[in-house]
Amino acid sequence: MFFVVGSARSGTTLLRLMLNAHPEIAVPPESRFIVELWSGAETVDRDRFLQALAGHKRFRVWDLPIEAVANELDDTTARVRYADAIEGAYRAYAHVQGKTRFGDKTPRYVEHIDFLADLFPQARFVHLVRDGRNVALSYGGVPFGPKNVAKAADLWRRRVGAGIKSGRKLDQGRYLELRYEDLTAEPHAQVRILCDFLGIVFDEGMLQYTERARDAVLARSAENNPHLLEGTKAGVREWQREMPTRHVEIFEAVAGPELEQLGYELRYPNAGTAARVLARLSRWGLPVARLRKE
Questions:
Q1: What is the pTM of this model?
Q2: 56, 75, 77, 264: most buried, per Cβ within 10 A?
Q3: What is residue 127's predicted lDDT score, i.e. its pLDDT?
Q4: How far apart are CA 251 and CA 80, in angstroms?
């Protein structure tokens, strides 16, 4: 089991398609149910779990018969380990896809690495990181997420910070940070690094994801990521060119330390008082430094 996590709008959908283009790997649409169905008990009633899973809106997007999951679970006992039940769902999805390996791509699990690492002691985590200023720009073109710079900065800061804090303390070999900028600039080299980390043989087809994994793109993802199937360099945002100067300073006033921690250069190492005040006002909900819709 492996997990691809990160702040939303950081390229995790792109990485999912690359992984699905591998002949052995199946990564279903976002789950969220691993956390949401957790009751705190190590074991669960088998039938009740299947009923709850079948009714979860995220599982229904998988278009997977619940009977396929049931076939993966031990039917000689009424209770099963929660971790085994969850893995049974992924194993069933992989089997339907004709694959032997499986993983998850749910960005917001970046805030639940501790829980997932305990639940799946052998699981590995790929934290995809993108310059938060470009993440903020990207939110302007979708119907969800924060709509002003300060709130976008605060959400990005919180999520990448959680990933770094939890991921970097895991045992060696369980956590990998990849930068979106590196993935789009040098996809061949970065995908090889990813494959080595996951313990799989690199396949050139992973770089042909625009064709091999086209069927894995949900309609919603295609709408919110219009350049997704045009190649790794298509539609890449550049905050240096597109983000208003005032917005850059406000973003850095909120998330400057996290940008620096991840190796991103600041334009304003010491954000001014005005930027800090504007950041505070916009985080309170005032219509300040709103993100422009594409």
A1: 0.90
A2: 264
A3: 98
A4: 47
